User: Fold this.
Amino acid sequence: MLDRAFGRLRAFRPQSSRLGPGWWPYAFLAPFLVLFAIFLLYPVISTVLISFQKKDGLGPGTFSGLDNYAALLRDPRFPIAARNSVVFTILGLVITIPSAFLLALGLNSQRLRARGVFRLLFFLPAAASSVIGAMIAYVFFDRQYGFINTQLGIDVPWLTSGALILPTIYLVILWKYVGYQSLYFLAGLQTIDKEIIDAARVDGANSAQVVRYVLIPLTKPILLVVVVLVILGSVQLFAEPYVMTKGTGGPGQGGLTIAMMIWEAAFRQFRFGYAAALAMVSVAAAILASIVAVRALRSET
Amino acid sequence: MLRTRRLAGTVSLNVAMTLLALFALIPFGVALSWSFKPLAEIFQLPVSPIPQTFSLDNYTAIFTDEHFEVFFRNSILAAVGYTSLGILWCSLGGWSLSQYRTRLNGPLLVMLFLVIALPFQVMIVPAFELVVQFGLVNTLWALIVPFSASAYGILFMRQYMLSLPREVFESARIDGASEFRIWRSLALPMSVPGIAALGIFLFLDSWNDFLWPLVVLTGRDNLTYPLGLNLLVGLFHLEYGQMMAASILALVPVAVILLFMQRQFISGITAGALRR
Assistant:
């Protein structure tokens, strides 16, 4: 009774929802938008402009057309860094992603004990700072006193060979991200209706066939996201190669990445225009590669 | 027959996963082991996987080094500041995007999704110039303010707040509550699990960051912990034991968060399959 009476009373009050929220939606968004526009949107646009300028350090630059891009083509280190990024991408696509998917299958299995503990353990490397991973890599891969060589009784120049520095950095990256990526696949696998799998089983599909014809197609949206993450991540690799090569790129520049070149050009040589051009080219290439990869994967069933 | 095969499958799955987990943990084990080795033992052949003499020297060296105290405090302050601001902007903006239909919503959402995928290098040079212009170089503010408007964060909060029951807010409106009051007294308390997940994500993002601090902290004394660690490689010529002790110490906050807030943590990382 009382409730109803109050309800009626309420109905006579002026209702703010009828008037609409007014300027509130914008007020709520304002602080975010201001910072976002200043520190994200403006810098992106500014990078585009700076890439066409001769600009060495702070202060205004002068328009120089495509000079920075031309300089990039003449830079002997650019093809090395670009090749390294491509190699990191390929390793990520053919080793990290399938490993992460297999790991997710294991983590998703009802027959695995203590699944929560496993999920946590595999995630631990991703939660640690990249610098820590690189630090441990020194102790792990030191040629004379390192854990791997001394315990396995081998003599491999993990960190000091131009041919091996990239694979060694990649091992650290694999260790760090395989568990992280498997969480994406795990999230995808957990959304799959168990009845679909049971139906396939009833129809006589074995485990491998269930994976190939049911689980992989149904987790494809996740796969696309992870593929894009790997491609965009490869041009951004910085902390591991930087620390593991002490900022030099390593022997024969074997561990040089695009992000390291950009950092060096901008903050060691203060060639802002050149750094911006490098950023433009690498990001454009990565986005293009992502689009091509997503298209290719989408059309294939 | 079928049951034995099934059992064998279960056993081999558990064994294989355990082995893999060991591989994932070995580097941490090595770091822990080396951190307790005295200097003499680290460069002494044959190398033992576990310390022959157990020493706390490396930890003492880190603890008594006043630089590391500063580095640790800086990292904590920067991470707490960045996380607090990030939560504030994102819970305000995410609320707006989840509750009201304005003409801004559509284009803004598209833009946020695009920016999330953009590699950091495409904004780093002008962002540094801005930090210089605002006089924030070499201050922790440079780590706290600029990227606290996280595109990932606002999308995450929007997603979370979309799942809250709208009827509650409607009836508060009918009762005459202002929009701000509804956000403050209803939406925020109801979003605590989401805020916790975002908070962990932002905290670790800042705690582990390397490139941006390297750019804006140009001095030697006012560094963050990861930068200080990196300095250890250069200045002290690879004192492996101290490097490992310092690394283990950097892992402590991460391990604490992981252990006590595991669920929020995992959901914060994978929600929407997005990242900054």
Remarks:
- Residues 5 and 11 of chain B are 10 Å apart (CA to CA).
